Amino acid sequence: MTQKPKPLHSIKVDGPIPAHLARSTIEETLRTAILDGRLPCGTALRQQDLADLFGVSRMPVREALRQLEAQALLSVTTHKGAVVAPLIQEDATQTYQLRILLESEALRQSVPLLTPADHDRAAALIEELENQHDYSEIGRLNRLFHMTLYSKAANRRLLRLVEDGLNEEERFLRFNLEAMGLGKISQDDHRAMLQATIEGDVEGSVTLLVQHLNRGVEVITRYLDSPAGQSRQAKP
């Protein structure tokens, strides 16, 4: 009988890891593997298996798993321990309602403090998105664009929560964007938001953001309710 490949076998570790870099290296390696799908939803990540893989003690592994749980990339279950978290599914509306609250406040705080360099960075990301055809890259660039606009928010804990939501969306887009038939649909929204921030129009930029996120949840909900979306989400 052919053995089913183990997800951890897809992760390559080059040589011993310096002790002071162990936690950050493990965190970034696992984060990348979750985002690109090498560690699928529902994969159990056991501390001893990871310690053996990275050639470290369980302490930095435990710390890395806590960080990934805080980023909503892992969830902890009673019998499996740390498990790769599911993608946006039936709770898409609730997820986006929370994002609207958090991101609106982050944008409100950030807009008055954004610099021309921030505006240029956001504009460059829009152009990259416009010309990008790699669906996994589109999710990443979308996250970077939004975080650029929020980057000057004074509340750093708020920013961490905002990035958690964007990480969740990035994972969903990586695996579903092509099937949804999307790609460049959000660029007009992005350009309008950027222009409002350049003009220093705080409430105008927030209004545009809310409209943008509401359109996003409508598209995602419609897709998840479709036969194609239900079939795709049912796959292990």
TrEMBL record:
Pfam families with a match to the protein in the record: FCD, GntR
Keyword NAD in record: no
Domain annotation HTH gntR-type: ranges: 20-87
Highest taxon in the source lineage: Bacteria
Record carries keyword DNA-binding: yes
Keyword annotations of the record: DNA-binding, Transcription, Transcription regulation
GO molecular function per UniProt: DNA binding; DNA-binding transcription factor activity
InterPro entries in the record: GntR_C, TF_FadR/GntR_C, Tscrpt_reg_HTH_GntR, WH-like_DNA-bd_sf, WH_DNA-bd_sf
Gene3D superfamilies registered for this protein in UniProt: GntR ligand-binding domain-like (1.20.120.530), Winged helix-like DNA-binding domain superfamily/Winged helix DNA-binding domain (1.10.10.10)
Protein name as it appears in the record: GntR family transcriptional regulator
Source organism (scientific name): Pseudomonas hamedanensis
Source lineage: Bacteria, Pseudomonadati, Pseudomonadota, Gammaproteobacteria, Pseudomonadales
